[in-house]
Amino acid sequence: MKSRQKTANIFLTGATGFLGAFLLYELLEQTPATIYCLVRAEDEKAGFQRLENALKQYSLWDERKRNRIVPVLGNLSVPLLGLSPTQFDNLAKTLDVVYHNGGSVNFLYPYSVLKAANVQGTHEVLRLACQAKVKPVHFISTVGVFSPIAYGDRDVVREGDALDRTEGLYGYTQSKWVAEKLIETARDRGLPVTIHRPFWIEGHSQTGVCNKSDFLRSAIAGCVQFGTAPDWQMRVDIVPVDFLSRAIVRICRQKSSFDKAFHYSNPRAISWNQLIRWMQEFGYSIEQQPAQHWIAQTIDRLPQSPDNALYPFLPFFSERIPGQSMSVPETYFQTKPLKFDCQNTWDGLAETDIICPPVDDKLLKTYFSYLIETGFLPAPVESEAELAAS
Length: 390
Ligand SMILES: NC(=O)c1ccc[n+]([C@@H]2O[C@H](COP(=O)([O-])OP(=O)(O)OC[C@H]3O[C@@H](n4cnc5c(N)ncnc54)[C@H](OP(=O)(O)O)[C@@H]3O)[C@@H](O)[C@H]2O)c1
Hints:
By secondary structure, the protein is α/β, with parallel strands linked by helices.
């Protein structure tokens, strides 16, 4: 058996978000600890309500665990997380471990906008971890810190590979890269840390419940709405949120995990083109087009299509990555996708029943059924015909 950490008081950031709500659920399930959650709200009542709503939104609420959740009103973008020096010091004395998952997950904002929440926020979290007593920090990063432009010469990107190449990063991934560098510096100075780099975080593997505003889901919906899809080379490398949150909490509770990075890439992912074929067989009428042609058409059509799920992502297609001649989709989806080795993760989960579900017909049906039932996607024509015939 791997030795497990015993912790009484855990600090979690981003618990009102998608992964954060599942991490809060898992921390309540897997530990007896009290979870102090950084939350943006007017007062404690509103803060608690936001956390309760987040758990309820994903069907994770357990009334019996209410007393183990403590809202900490604050903001990652503000010095001392928006707390007074006394509040900050008291919190630093109370906590035993930190899970830093919160941040601005926005692919469209430039680094200058994301820096406050993602970089300075990480700085303040590290300050909290080092004040009064040393507390391990578990940091949620992204595989996006490795850009295909910078690491395209590798057959595989390993968890221990140096993060020393920045070409091809854009605002969001730049901010996560710098935040990782802060975590690395703290590690080199003796702070116990772990770094977790998931690929796309997708819905619950059994219920399909998910965060509907992410890019991948918007791309799927946008293609259904337009009836066309690009011929991208990208991998639909999705990690279901229930698997990911269970895995992260389990791995973080093992002392043998300290000072390592962990990749979460689906060993049984599919390609984007396989996904489009599956959607066609499922009943959607989608014509696949050469990627450049589709992107040019999308840039033309989106300004007149505010109802299209991709509408908010127009700048993503039309703007170049700083210092590069290509946009983010051209860089990330039209070039050979990077492969991520996950050995530390599989080792950390070896003695558990935590297994990443494959991206197969069953998982895709679960996801699409949820998206159709909740009105995010129209039912495919064939399904409607089947329903009428039944
Ligand atoms: N989604 C993915 O596919 C993906 C993939 C790889 C890595 N990740 C990483 O996973 C983590 C969680 O992502 P997610 O998709 O769950 O994001 P999300 O749903 O957008 O949640 C972000 C959370 O961070 C909080 N937050 C943002 N700015 C804040 C601030 N200034 N002060 C305090 N809290 C703030 C949000 O609080 P509010 O509710 O107040 O806005 C929310 O609770 C992030 O670190 C992200 O980089 C995500």
